Amino acid sequence: MKEVLLNRALSEEIREIYAEMAGQYDVVARRLHFSCDGCPDNCCDSFFLHHTYAEWAYLFQGFRELGSERQDDLLGRCRQYVLGCNAAQAKGERPQLMCPLNEAGRCTLYAHRLMVCRTHGVPAVMQRPDGKRLHFPGCFRCQEIVKKKFVHDSQAPRVQRTPLLQRLVSLERGLMGEKLHLYPRVKLTIAQMLLDGPPCISRTCCERQGGSGDV
User: Which end of the chain has the least Cβ crowding within 10 Å, N or C?
Assistant: First the structure.
């Protein structure tokens, strides 16, 4: 097994994607006069699965910057989170547990948080590869604002997720190469990612025999 590592160029590219996303989010939030300040809810208890090796590797970069004591504490919370999710799913329920990265309302790995965490809140739209358009109305608080301001929610500004996701897919291909479709698909919570360690993949036959092929 070998670890999937982001080189400096790919790390910078993912930061640029996140910065563009933050910029679009802020534009929509300002137009709606939307803010999370004073919200009685916390979106960090939403259950999300994440799907890219690139974001997993980037998240683990941030985790490695923590001291060993904080890492151990965080991993303990991750174990409790996974147990709680398993218990909820065993009962046929969608888990609703506070993300183990949340400490006093703030993300422990804020600079390395994943794309889904960054887009949740304001309205957004995305077009899938099959052409189907998906609409995301935003959090309950944002939906209330939209209902007051617009006759129909389609009139509200929204983040265009498609170009951002396309850039992330391109980055993933640049990281994993032409064999991307041969590797196991990522479908993990943040807690599972951290507990599993950094993303690793099996070496191909030619690599085991001494070829280069570093990811």
Answer: N
Which CA distances in Å does 154 have to 140, 143, 150, 203? Answer: 16, 12, 8, 48
Domain boundaries, the chain: 2-208
Phi-psi region of 131 (alpha: psi -120 to 50; beta: other; left: phi over 0): left
Q: Which residues neighbour 163 within 8 Å (Cβ) at sequence distance 6 or greater?
A: none
Q: What pTM value is reported for the model?
A: 0.85
What's 202's DSSP letter? P
| Residues comprising the chain, all counted | 215
Confidence of residue 152 (pLDDT cuts 50, 70, 90): confident
Residues 6+ apart with CB under 8 A from 156: 32, 123, 146, 149, 150
